[in-house]
Amino acid sequence: MMKQTLALIVLGIVSTGLFSCRHSRQIAGTSFPVTDTTQHNIITKTDSASVAAASTYNKELLSKLRSNHISFNTFSAKLKIDFETESKQMSGINANMRMQKDSFIWISVSAPIIGEVARAIITPDSLKAIDKFHKIAYLRDLKNAQDVLNIPFDFKTLQDLLIGNPIYLTDSVYQVVKTPAVISFTCDSTIFTSLFNVFADDYILQQSKVMDKDSTRRRSVELTYGEYKSLDKIKFATRRRVFVEEKSYTKINMDFNKIDFDQPVSFPFTIPSGYSRE
């Protein structure tokens, strides 16, 4: 329960992936690349002028997307989480999340009626978590914490994932597909191939999909971002959907109902006496 809950919360608070709304527009489960064949533009020519034009366009695309990067000193949020796996469903989970940029990620998870069931604090070097239900404390070096998190993210990537910035976005842009509503493209990193859909009018994220290059793992995470709100010039997706596939699937819905940037935050974390340690 603890390992699964933390993995889902840390991965889930992080991201998104099935459906949601943006303003009055419905976000469908758009495939990658965009499959609107009525009005689209795919750059396929290989002559030098077309290649140069494509390179210029790709740079402008990345610049506009990165202009929406969320910068912050501190962040706090309250949200509701539902998740579903092949074997179980849970809904109405309450989570509190706090972050101090490049230093701390703090998460508290509560279940209806029961109250707080788990708490975790993550630093660039470590993960500490307590399972109050089973009275177990987990202590890990972050680089060795995959048995708890089950995701190969360093602190910075996890921080970007939680705040809503694109992850595994690199300069190696290709397979650009443009429609009037959405721009779709692909890029590569060392371990993953990442696919992105961004809204054509303001270049904020609609969806992204991260796929393991090792086909034997058959591991992917699809994220969808919706119901954006402007908070002091920050565009923040208050509804997130996550769809994780590996040997089985996990679906996660997240709805943020309270968000604060750059307000004082604290990160209380103690291991009660009598807890076993793993």
TrEMBL record:
UniProt xrefs under InterPro entries: DUF4292
PROSITE patterns linked: PROKAR_LIPOPROTEIN (PS51257)
Pfam family, any one: DUF4292
Protein name stated in the entry: DUF4292 domain-containing protein
Species this protein is from: Chitinophaga filiformis
Record lineage: Bacteria, Pseudomonadati, Bacteroidota, Chitinophagia, Chitinophagales
